[in-house]
Amino acid sequence: MAAKTSKKSAKVAKKAAAKRGAAKRINRRKTASKPRASKSTKSVLLSGGNPQIAKGYGDAPVQAYIAAIPDWKRDIGRRLDALIVRTVPHVYKAVKWNSPFYGIEGDGWFLSFHCFTNYVKVTFFRGTSLRPIPPGESKHNEVRYLDIREDQLDESQFVAWVRQASELPGEKM
After folding, report:
1. What is the CATH number of the domain that holds 87?
2. Based on the domain organization, do 1 and 75 belong to the same domain?
3. For the chain, which has fewer Cβ within 10 Å, the N-terminal or C-terminal residue?
4. From CA 140, how far away is CA 137, in angstroms rounded?
5. Residue 104: in which H helix or E strand, if any?
6. What is d(CA 73, CA 9) in angstroms, rounded to the nearest whole number?
């Protein structure tokens, strides 16, 4: 009977070892297939020249987005960011859906912008409540847009809209 028990123990031990080996092979495959962090700092540009930046919260992802914007639109992005921060010093920032978002922490987002081939589109989430109303219409009832082309930013009007937008309830996303 002891011989049968030791044979059963040997079989159980052999099966357990085989399972461990299979698990190690599977884990190695999973590890090998994980994307590795790129050493290159060059970002991917999506259609229209909009940078593809990983979702993130805080100033760092927004600055990475702005640094990756091509051509003259990078200067517009820097200027927009500086004006927003100067107007709303406690602004909360994030990159979501490959666009920088600005809001009041706990109150939601009031503004975003996105790069296109020939302009930068600023989105005011409660734009119909701003005075004067920003010119770009949207299929969403409250949203209004401002398209900024090279050297066409009216800073005083933009700052007035940012101030007004930051005082309204934000969009929860």
Report:
1. 3.90.1150.200
2. no
3. N
4. 8
5. strand 99-104
6. 71
How far apart, in Å, do the first and last CA atoms of the chain sit? 68
119 burial level (CB within 10 Å; 0-12, 13-18, 19+)? middle
* Alpha carbon 91 to its chain's center: 16
Task: Kindly tell me the sign of the dihedral angle through the C-alpha atoms of 161, 166, 167, 172.
Answer: positive
Looking at the structure, tell me whether residues 26 and 62 fall in a common domain.
no
In tens digits, the chain (173 residues) has pLDDT values of: 555 556 666 666 676 666 666 555 544 444 444 333 333 445 677 777 788 888 999 999 999 999 999 989 999 999 999 999 999 999 999 999 999 999 999 899 999 999 999 999 999 999 999 999 999 999 999 999 999 999 899 999 999 999 999 999 888 86
pTM for the predicted model, two decimal places: 0.73
Rounded-to-integer distance, Cα 95 and Cα 82, Å: 16
